[in-house]
TrEMBL record, chain A:
InterPro entries: EMC2-like, TPR-like_helical_dom_sf, TPR_EMC2. Gene3D superfamilies: Tetratricopeptide repeat domain (1.25.40.10). Component of the ER membrane protein complex (EMC). Residues 100-209 form the EMC2 TPR-like domain. Keywords: Endoplasmic reticulum, Membrane, Repeat, TPR repeat. This is ER membrane protein complex subunit 2. It is found in: Endoplasmic reticulum membrane. The keyword Repeat applies. PANTHER family: TETRATRICOPEPTIDE REPEAT PROTEIN (PTHR12760).
Automatic annotation (TrEMBL), chain B:
It comes from the Eukaryota. The lineage of its organism: Eukaryota, Viridiplantae, Streptophyta, Embryophyta, Tracheophyta. PROSITE patterns: MPN. It holds the Pfam family UPF0172. InterPro entries: EMC8/9, MPN. This is MPN domain-containing protein. It comes from Brassica cretica. GO terms for cellular component: EMC complex. Residues 11-146 form the MPN domain. Belongs to the EMC8/EMC9 family.
Length: 303, 166
């Protein structure tokens, strides 16, 4: 996961690089460090370094890391010939290397030769059964072939061993959501909240899923998690503020005719605080949309 | 989405509405994206749906309700002043060769058709996108498209995309 500061730094560097302002190597290192997916730009600028023998030799031993980075970026952009060439260079320099072997298997996968890729990965796993990257490639292949249940199966097995891999839990949650399996997605977010309770992202995602499942109890719980998100972000999460208003409206609808003294359900102060905070934010940052927001909030109160 | 009448339904989509959706798909090539179609039943021909605009919605967690509900409320509020409403749904699948209309698309399409019975679901043919996109990719216009996801992350970003075609 990338923080806002890191993202800003990355985007600034990217703009600089794309507009001919230099800083290519710095950018490529940052992309590697943050593990983000910027394949077209990496391919374009990485190749320009590799194709210039002067620039290439000034990299020293980092030259090989760049070949690897460009190979992967090329595969993501379906420039398989470029990838093949980079891998050839690495094969020559590091014969018998397992790391290069991974790239070869990745290339087979990029060509869509699923069975051969499966075999190649299995062989690599025999030597190193705890290689997380290769396990994840199996999930990726299942997804690419349109077999989400198989992806889920692989991912669940992976998480039995690597249960601290937060990215994997998030990926699993998102696959479940895409299949509208909300209860299973909720379970994943519960695991994430347990292991990293101060990350607002998980509280927010959990709240969204609970709201989507619906029902009075889930709506009340969702509201609590939206409130937690607001707490953890110092009130800056627009999504959470809107979530409070949506919950308030839905809860009011569902509890119509019930015992009005039930304190759990009515939270008028919370709702009006959220509405005020939203209006303040829009007034400051998006005044053209303020009227729209206000009438949207009004219609939520009425519905 | 049928009507009860015997009139054959035709749909007309404006160039800008169409291009906006294509640009949105190009901007988020590795994800499923969706959007709504905005327009009205033609006052001259009740068998013609005029789609004059579109609003790109999301590029992550498409099935989740809270962002969807808020976006639909705001979009309706905005367009009702122009005599327009949400008249259809657009969806582009994550995978290149996936031509299925998934559960999410059907659910949202059904929801929209409850308010506008003639609502179509537009599914992007990813394979044809390749041929279409050469012009748009070189102009890099797709970098400027804002969707509702972007707006919810930063309200200064405008989902109406006012300057997109200038």
């Amino acid at each position: 996961m990338v923080t806002k500061t890191e993202e800003r730094e990355l985007n600034e560097l990217e703009n600089q690089v794309e507009n001919g302002g230099g800083g290519v190597w710095e950018y490529l290192c940052l992309v590697r460090k943050l593990k983000v997916r910027r394949s077209e730009i990496v391919l374009k600028h990485g190749l320009s370094i590799l194709n210039d023998s002067g620039k290439r030799s000034s990299l020293g031993p980092d030259e090989w890391t760049l070949y690897e980075q460009v190979a992967v970026a090329a595969m993501d952009c379906q420039s398989l010939a470029v990838a093949q060439n980079c891998i050839k260079v690495l094969q020559k320099k590091f014969p018998e290397s397992k790391r290069v072997g991974k790239l070869e298997a990745l290339l087979i996968e990029a060509k869509g030769m699923w069975e051969e890729a499966e075999k190649a990965y299995s062989i690599l796993l025999e030597d190193n059964p705890l290689d997380q990257v290769i396990h994840k490639r199996k999930v990726a292949m299942a997804k690419a072939q349109g077999k989400p249940s198989l992806a889920i199966e692989h991912l669940n097995k992976y998480l039995e061993v690597f249960m601290a891999d937060h990215d994997a839990w998030r990926e699993l949650a998102e696959i479940y959501v895409s299949l509208q399996m909300y209860k299973q997605a909720a379970f994943c977010y519960e695991e994430l909240i347990l292991s990293q309770p101060t990350l607002p992202l998980y509280h927010l995602a959990y709240a969204d899923v609970l709201y989507t499942i619906g029902g009075l109890e889930n709506l009340i719980a969702a509201r609590k998690y939206y409130a937690a998100t607001i707490d953890l972000t110092g009130g800056k999460s627009t999504r959470a503020l809107l979530g409070i208003c949506l919950c308030g409206s839905a809860i009011a609808q569902l509890s119509r005719g019930r015992n009005k003294e039930d304190k759990d359900m009515a939270a008028p102060e919370l709702q009006s605080l959220a509405a005020t905070a939203l209006e303040k934010e829009y007034k400051q940052k998006s005044p053209a949309k303020l009227n729209l927001l206000s009438s949207a909030l009004r219609s939520l109160k009425l519905s | 989405m049928g009507t009860g009448t015997n009139v054959e339904l035709k749909y007309e989509i404006s160039q800008n509405a169409y291009i906006k959706l294509v640009l949105h798909s190009l901007r988020h090539k590795t994800a499923a994206v969706n959007g709504v179609l905005v327009g009205r039943l033609s006052p001259k021909d009740e068998g013609l749906v005029e789609i004059s605009d579109s609003v790109p919605l999301f590029h992550s967690n498409l099935p989740l309700l809270p962002p969807l509900e808020i976006s639909l409320v705001m979009i309706e509020e905005h367009y009702v002043a122009q005599g327009l409403s949400v008249v259809g749904y657009f969806h582009a699948n994550e995978r290149f060769d996936d031509v299925e209309v998934c559960g999410v698309a059907k659910n949202i399409g059904d929801h929209i058709s409850r308010y506008f019975p003639q609502a179509p679901i537009l599914l992007l043919n990813n394979k044809k996108l390749e041929a279409l996109s050469k012009d748009y990719i070189s102009s890099e216009k797709w970098k400027d498209v804002i969707d509702f996801d972007d707006h919810l992350d930063d309200v200064t970003k405008d989902w109406l995309n006012p300057g997109l075609f200038n």
